[in-house]
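User:
I would dearly like some help making sense of a protein record. Take your time, and here it is.
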Amino acid sequence: MSSRGLNLCTLAGHVAADPVIRTVERKSGGQAQVAEITIYVDRVPSRKDNDSFMVDVSFWEGSAAWRKLAYIKKGSLIIVSGTIDASPYVSKTDSQARAGLQLKATDIFLDSSPRSDDAVKDTVGTEQPVAVGAKF
């Protein structure tokens, strides 16, 4: 099997802000909705002093990714699969040309475990006394 023309990318990262939904005109006529998010991807997840990079992600109405839209919010850890393209832009802060990445998602996997800081908050003060010598 040839890998010529293969463009498949899977990234894990945290959602920077709640999804933004836009209605766009299709080239073939009619309208479609597209949701857009930005995720921060750690370069080396095990390092505390790690820097991350941003990837813009779009997913279209009717896709497997679209069906999970209601569960995606700021701070969510997600795994995204799809095709990736270069997306150059001009920085708003210093007006310099920058290289960006745009991922067109085909599927999104949601992390079901709580964030570590939320997990600590949820367990503080919830200790239950244990009956010594009680039979269960």
Summary: Residues 57 and 118 are 25 Å apart (CA to CA). The mean pLDDT is 80.
